[in-house]
Protein 1
Amino acid sequence: MRPVPGVSPQSFSLRRIALPAFGPSLLFGVGEGAILPIVPLTARELGASVSVAALVVTLIGVGSLVSNVPASAITTRFGERRAMVGASLWAAFAMLLCMLARDLVVFSLAILMIGMSTAVFNLARLSWMAEAVPVRYRARALSTLGGVLRIGLFIGPFVAAAAIHPFGPLAAYAAGIVVLVAGAVVARSVAELPAPGADATRRAPLRLAEVLREHRRVFATVGLGVVLIAAVRASRQGIIPLWGEHIGLGAASVSLIYGLSNAVDMLVFYPAGRRMDLRGRRAVAVPSMAIMGVALLAIPFTHAAPSLLAASLLIGFGNGIGSGLVMTLGVDHAPAHGRTQFLGVWRLLSDVGATAGPALLSAVAALAPLAAAIAAIGAIAFAGAAAFSRWVPRAGATDPRADATDESRASS
């Protein structure tokens, strides 16, 4: 691991790298969050039915899913800084297409492009953090990174609302463009990390098949836990509104409950990262999944706003303490040679889970009562807790020898 030039592990401070490490991610989150509420409405304006409009929204996830592996090649070829700048500008261009689109096909393509940019940006920022942050601060840095993105997605709709009020719905895309261009400027100021040593530069980039073969055990064990946690996280976003409607709550009450759950989610990311650094990854991974499992199983027993709020707050807490967990486990297991390819596959596993979870919720709900579908997702959460308990070491992947390596590199 190569820390930021001139910064040793002993003198490292998250505050010192806050702007380059977290600034681009915050702005990218705000830009993306600004358009999310307006995407289905724009699709409807272009003639989409309700079901087709919902499908258009999923294209962001589809674009990310299919671009994770190509994103690793882009990041390897151009470097983390240029990849982040390029992804931000690509997303801004896609939002411009959204504003100019006069038919649903062009609009859908633009939404798919936004998902593609998300894959490149997220992989590049994760690869940069893997290099820039000493291992003893890794979980704190990555949980903060996850928290910053959550904050950006939370702020984005309010930024869009401020633009929409005087200028109309398409102004949300204009607001997103402005924020993303600002993010590209901030990303441009990110320090280029020193090149690997001579031995590493002579080594040809690993092919995807080699990465899959060499790390197949990690992908089949800890990677399974990543798929499960991503499935639960993605499903919870639909469970709270669906159950709220099922028990007869109005849209305002459901929105308030959902917002308060997200607020709790955003408040606990740093303490969780600190605990991972000090107590190991399993000390957070297992409780995070178990707490969400308990809360999800409790939801079918709620019949009014107060009890649903209590269960939703517990879901937010469980998800919040797992902020940055998937990224941290990925960086822990990523090899120095072939790191971006490994992380590309890691993000692919996460996106597969995020796609499969809501699909499973929908399939079970179509065949059985909604309560059974929610219980199925709760069972997946407990399966994830069992997977992490079995395959994540009690002390995490942190190796104190890595700090000595960091220090020697920083002083060389």
Protein 2
Amino acid sequence: MINSKQKENVFSKRIDQSFKDLDRAFKFVGRFFKELFQSPFEFREIIQQCYEVGYKSLPLITLTGFVTGIVFTKQSRPSLADFGASSWLPSLIAIALVRTLAPLVTALIAAGKVGSNIGAELGSMKVTEQIDAMEVSAINPYKYLVVTRVFATTFMVPVLMFYCAFVGLMGAYLNVHANELTSFVAFFKRSFESITFLDVFSSLFKSIVYGFTIGIVGCYQGFNATQGTQGVGRAANASVVLSMFLIFIEEILIVQVTNWIRFY
């Protein structure tokens, strides 16, 4: 039987370990900003990672964005029709996509696809001692592996977000045109009547934050993977779960700040 003193010791050790992990995570993030502006700059690897993050995610982003636009339009039409406000449908879709759906959908897809890939890739390199071999070869593994991947996710997630919003609007247009015979020009004119600079800026800012979160979490989990192949699996899983959790927290905070700016 475990007595109360032993339970207190176990609890105390867990608290200490949590603070140590938190301190290590903050140091890992701080090192990124330090290494980002120091030479050498791995431009070729950055371009390669942008290709991996952006181009290879296009099919999934295209399908998801298109379906999101169609489904949201189908779900919104009956409610607006009950109030005789079907003409507001393009504006409603554009506001929903630009403000929330496009950034959030893109970030969640990237967290599942890109975040897991980064965590598994770096975790595999860690447990097979490839990262240690890079240090022996006078190569800065953090600069080559972490900075390039985090920069790529931070840059490409906003690009994918705007693409997702466009594809979603195209899906919505096809649905609206099939039901109301609305022209292409009229649909997009109504769509952007209610979109403000604050909406676009807040979505861009959210996407940058989401992209940085996905990249840094995936790299941190992979860089600290242990215990062989099981550790690689845990790193990939933790990259997805923690990234999504942080994305939802960031979404709440940014929306609160944006609403405060919009109304005050």
